[in-house]
Amino acid sequence: MSAIPRRSLLKVAAVAGAAAQFSWALGRGDARAAVAAEAPADARPARVTWLEPGGFGAAAGSTFGVAWPRGVHPDDQVFALTTADGAAVPVQTWTTARWPDGSLKWTAHAVGPEAAGAERFTVAPGTPATAAKTVSVTETGRRITIDTGTVRAVVSKEGGKLVESVTRDGVKIATDGRLVLLRQGDLDDGDRGDASWDRFDGEISGAVVEQRGPVRAVVRIDGKHRKGNRSWLPFSVRLYFYAGSESFRMVHTVTYDGDQRKDFIRGLGVRFTVPLRDAAYDRHIRIAGEGAGFLTEAVQGVTGLRRDPGAAVRAAQVKGEKLPDPATWDQRVTTRMQYVPTWGDYTLAQLSADGFTLRKRTKPGHGWIPAGGGRRASGFGYVGGVTGGLSFGLRDFWQKHPAQLDIRGAAGDAAQVTLWLWSPEAQPMDLRFYHDGMGQDTFPEQLEGLNITYEDHEPGFGTPYGIARTSELMFWANAATPAAATLVDQAAAVRTPPQLAVSPEDLVRARVFGGLFSPVDRSTPARATIEDHLDYLFTYYKDQVEQRRWYGFWDYGDIMHTYDEDRHQWRYDVGGYAWDNSELSPDLWLWYAYLRSGRADIFRFAEAMTRHTGEVDVYHLGTWAGLGTRHGVQHFADSAKQQRISTAVYRRPYYFLTADERVGDLMHALVDSDETFLALDPIRKIRTEPYTPDRHALSIGFGTDWSGLAAAWLTEWERGGPKAAKAEARLRSTMETIAAQPNGFVQGTGLYDLDTGRFAIADEPAVGVSHLSAMFGLVEMCAELIDLVDQPRFKEAWLDYCRYFNASKTEQAARYGQNFGTLLLFQGHSRQDAYAAAQLNDTRLAQRAWATFDRSDGYTAAMVWDKTPVQGSNALEPGYEHLWISTNTTALYGLAAIQNLALVGDHLPT
């Protein structure tokens, strides 16, 4: 990983500093000229395939990211997308990151339905094909209208109707798209049954167009839920439209800002009205069960009657086709149709990961009739008739239970469809802290609690105020009731949205994310053994999610921290041993595992974790906005609120691979999170000297603290965000002043000035090394920064830290005047040996990296990689366990294995 030449760096810095003040997407003219003047290092096209087989299916479109080697493409490069057989596909391209020289680092590409049918694509410089249909956006003072060429949606900028209407061929398919919140002010902890509900409706505070086509348009709508004088539970909704598509996607985020003791969410949903024009027997209900299963019914059925209207009539209704004129039926049916019930209301409730129930009734005031049930519903349905109707679906329906689908009033002039993100039939959402503090009122008492349950408790800190959750929904405006095969495809697109992905080889070639990964390689027995172990660990956690039912609205996407071998259960109820909350970087392990393999199962696992850890484990409102919460029984329970959990390091891969705007929001919000050190001292409980946060002298660690700040600043800088100039300046100044410390990174901490963005240089050398310092993304951030920014002293300081962490105490003392004390996590730190070895071409360090990897405190060469069955009275559900596996060790083993193979794989002992 070579540094940028200093003369190029000075030129780039001047260009970047001026350009970053204007716009996210502003081109950099001088930098473009510089790039154009140099010969491209590797201008090969990027190869793109579907993440899962099957291609587009019924999805609206797909957006994906492509990484480019430094210096290959200027900022104004135009790209074309072609299939393997050379057919041109319309594509919309924008820049998501630039290298410091101004060349393209990451580009995002959107394709619509015209990409259907092809399996492999290439992205290369060229003129993009013109779409047969384009998406257009028009605005007035109060409305935004999006036309895909197939459907037309009108979005409000004010009021309570997010989507006023969705029309197709002039026919209104859906109207009054809105948000619904049910609040309960008390819980029935006993059997009184007297709790009351309040209904709040979403109220828009503003709406903006973020993209205008020609292939993809994005509208963002913000607001709160309101009833009377109270507004709460902020929402942010994005609507995605693709050219030519009959559908649109919704990404829905809510942030909890209530009082955990009295604001219990009883129901949280998205609701549309569906106008109905057809006769009751020509109206159809389709509700997906598990897999390809469906409830297939009409509002007024003609099948199963005592009198037969005729085989053709019955067959047409089951297919969703218009029935023949009733005058052609058996008149014993035609003349008695007024006595055949119309079924207007349907409900599918998924209250757990293992069961759903389905019921229906004719209309309010009358009894419900069971209509079936099963295990895991797809979260998809349809209501409409032969002249059109709405398909609708909620992703991760059973995984993020309790969820529910409602259809109401389908026998009338219009049906109401509600997709409940939190089912009103479930117990109310209870976010109260789980214990009373147990007398832990002082720091010494809290430290004693930490020493027994590993929970870092502090009164008032176990609050959900400011945590968030994002959900994804899909809607189709159908010209008629879809055929069964089409409905199956639509439901599949809800469960697993088709995703295009660039090849691992292209990601390696671009040297993104520090160049710390290489393609999966089983060419030698030693390499194959490590690959087998990596596969085993991923499979183990994937299986544990299912075996232990790590599902639920707030929980899905996280994994547990530590196992309890006596109970044959993860320590879900023991303080800091429960939910992992990104401890020691499992997010990074998963993303690096995907980057090198391209495996869909790893991508989806990492995607769910990114959605969870970036939203639920982090505060987005209040005093601690920008900080995350350490591992615990509840995701927000622990009093350690720190940068190491909220860090953008864990979000960057997903953002650049998908251009997901919500994750982009999360990272942008962290740019000013250095301000949080004024509000909360991360190590307040263990300080031995008095300390009061001072704006000009904030104590900030060079490890878990600075790595989180640096990740946010780097991301903002390379994205060219609104605060890019500030972010770049802070990144450079903190790198410079860390390197200038008497002992560099080994110094441990420094006093940071919020106004200048610099650390004060300590008068005396100190040793402040923790085994945690580098294990929350610092290794990865330093690799990226050394590759991007020409600061030789910073590189020297980091390489020293890498070389001496796993050195002997004698070597440490000889270099720094004292040793580093008692350390842990040597296997995880073997990747620092490997990095230094690669940078310094040091064979001895490379050998030490593999020796430490194989024979230290992690998963050693002697570990037995077998499954032990858990069954009978030993477990709630049968499955298997592995007593040697813990999530801390897994994350560090995975990262060390992947990075060591990439950096010093040629030194792997045979």
TrEMBL record:
<dbReference type="InterPro" id="IPR048330">
    <property type="entry name" value="PcRGLX/YetA_2nd"/>
</dbReference>
<dbReference type="Pfam" id="PF19501">
    <property type="entry name" value="PcRGLX_1st"/>
</dbReference>
<dbReference type="InterPro" id="IPR006311">
    <property type="entry name" value="TAT_signal"/>
</dbReference>
<dbReference type="Pfam" id="PF21345">
    <property type="entry name" value="PcRGLX_2nd"/>
</dbReference>
<dbReference type="InterPro" id="IPR048329">
    <property type="entry name" value="PcRGLX_1st"/>
</dbReference>
<protein>
    <submittedName>
        <fullName>Tat pathway signal sequence domain protein</fullName>
    </submittedName>
</protein>
<dbReference type="InterPro" id="IPR048331">
    <property type="entry name" value="PcRGLX/YetA_3rd"/>
</dbReference>
<feature type="domain" description="PcRGLX/YetA-like central beta-sandwich">
    <location>
        <begin position="135"/>
        <end position="491"/>
    </location>
</feature>
<feature type="domain" description="PcRGLX/YetA-like C-terminal alpha/alpha toroid">
    <location>
        <begin position="497"/>
        <end position="908"/>
    </location>
</feature>
<dbReference type="Pfam" id="PF21346">
    <property type="entry name" value="PcRGLX_3rd"/>
</dbReference>
<dbReference type="InterPro" id="IPR045793">
    <property type="entry name" value="PcRGLX/YetA-like"/>
</dbReference>
<feature type="domain" description="PcRGLX/YetA-like N-terminal RIFT barrel">
    <location>
        <begin position="46"/>
        <end position="125"/>
    </location>
</feature>
